[in-house]
């Protein structure tokens, strides 16, 4: 049900200028990825319990259990559905070519979503690697069936429809082959689009323009809570907005994301390292080397950029609340980024402290 919203925002310049729509999508994607990771861990645990035991013939009634056990097979399809390459190409194109009065906001929104995608890849990759390639192989070869979308029948009732199996044959018959083609290639595709967004010429130009206009590179980002009604202690979605949100008279939300290289030396070094690695690895690099470089880039990006409307603890497993944004009601005293609890904030401090100090030094509020 989230896929149409993803396409609508990523493929529309007007939607990217609407900060409420972008913050809402970021929150929803974060919640969905968090739940996906939860299911991945459960599936891996189920399969591990089955190891060493003789597989029993399953009855038709056990099909739901079978799909749950082999949930890892659905993850590449989930990534391709919710992070569609075509839509990401549109976003990268908008970030690269936009020339409207709302161009700075479009670029900032695009980078925000790119960071959310990088964060999602890091979380999913962590769960996938913990499960190990063998379990993904077993899941794909089991050819489980999954319901992929909701549909409304003629009677008006809502039911699941479009049942299909994961076509394991296209990934080869070896553990390594399926790991490379089903998972690593998926990560590379998303990372390439993330890189295209954050390195687009218009984003660099927007950062320079915003800095020149505001003096402080985070001035538009640190507007008061009164001017940004969604950045409240109750944790409602990331920014108030209307169809006029792209007006040049309004401050650019999340402007700090356009200046990450200036704000965070570690990110600047990681970006330079990735760019050099990409040039070095072409054209005959092994998939594993490319995957490692892509994953390292995503880790560096999400660590450098605290995000609004979500718990910033990468390992957060809190699924309570009406939305991710509503749950993330606690603020970091240093950079003002969000957490859902004191426990999550404490657990994340070691990872977060460098970015926090960089953001605080620049007087940036990451929930702006």
From TrEMBL:
Its EC number is 2.7.1.182. GO terms for cellular component: chloroplast; membrane. Residues 223-248 are annotated as: Disordered. It catalyses: phytol + CTP = phytyl phosphate + CDP + H(+). One of its GO terms (molecular function) is zinc ion binding. PROSITE patterns: ZF_MYND_2 (PS50865). Residues 226-248 have a biased composition (Low complexity). The keyword Zinc-finger applies. Residues 311-356 form the MYND-type domain. The keyword Protein biosynthesis does not apply. Keywords: Chloroplast, Kinase, Membrane, Metal-binding, Plastid, Transferase, Transit peptide, Transmembrane, Transmembrane helix, Zinc, Zinc-finger. It comes from the Eukaryota. Pathway: Cofactor biosynthesis; tocopherol biosynthesis. It is a multi-pass membrane protein. Belongs to the polyprenol kinase family. PANTHER family: DOLICHOL KINASE, PHYTOL KINASE 1, CHLOROPLASTIC. This is phytol kinase. It comes from Tetradesmus obliquus.
